[in-house]
């Protein structure tokens, strides 16, 4: 059954965050990931969303593949770059 990683982020230091983006470029695809949505929140219909929040939805063949991506050595190393990119708030969840 397909699984999705839904990531939300607010980026306050775009040049530093781009180091993380470069480091993960093509990595999700190696685990069978296919990005369905990538962009800013354009309208809030209910609840509250931080200003500037972006959403990324990536589909994987199954939850095991999604988790393998998140736990891979390459992703873990790249995540360190994101951590040092200023005030970045990231939430990632797997839905299957």
Overall description:
This protein has 96 residues and is of the alpha+beta class. It has a single domain (1-40, 51-92), classed as Alpha-Beta Plaits. The protein contains 4 helices and 4 strands, in the order βααββααβ. A 4-stranded antiparallel sheet has the order 2-3-1-4. α1 (14-24) packs antiparallel against α4. The longest helix has 11 residues, at 14-24. The protein starts with a strand and ends with a strand. The mean pLDDT is 89.
Outline:
With 96 residues, the chain is α+β, with helices and mostly antiparallel strands.
Structural class: alpha+beta
Task: Report the helical percentage.
Answer: 25-40%
Give me the strand/helix succession: EHHEEHHE
Sheet having the most strands: 4 strands, antiparallel
- End-to-end separation in angstroms reads 7 Å
Number of domains: 1
Strand order of the largest sheet: 2-3-1-4
CATH top level is: Alpha Beta
Number of distinct helices: 4
Number of strands: 4
Low-confidence stretches: none
Tell me the strand percentage band. 25-35%
Q: Nearest-angstrom radius of gyration?
A: 13 Å
CATH-level-2 architecture? 2-Layer Sandwich
The CATH topology label is Alpha-Beta Plaits
Protein name: DUF1330 domain-containing protein
InterPro entries: Dimeric_a/b-barrel, DUF1330
Domain DUF1330: 2-91
Task: Write the SSE topology.
Elements: E1 3-10, H1 14-24, H2 27-30, E2 34-40, E3 54-60, H3 63-71, H4 73-83, E4 89-95
Antiparallel strand pairs: 1-3, 1-4, 2-3
Helix pairs in contact: 1-4
Entry keywords:
96 residues, alpha+beta, Alpha-Beta Plaits, four-stranded antiparallel beta sheet, Dimeric_a/b-barrel, DUF1330 domain-containing protein, DUF1330
């Amino acid at each position: 059954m397909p699984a999705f990683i839904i990531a939300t982020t607010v980026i306050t230091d775009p040049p530093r965050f781009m180091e993380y983006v470069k480091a993960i470029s093509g990595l999700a695809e190696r685990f069978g990931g296919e990005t369905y949505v990538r962009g800013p929140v354009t309208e809030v219909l209910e609840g509250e969303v931080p200003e500037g929040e972006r959403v990324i939805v990536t589909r994987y063949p199954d939850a095991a593949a999604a988790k393998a991506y998140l736990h891979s050595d390459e992703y873990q190393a790249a995540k360190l770059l994101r951590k040092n990119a200023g005030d970045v708030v990231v939430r990632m969840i797997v839905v299957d």
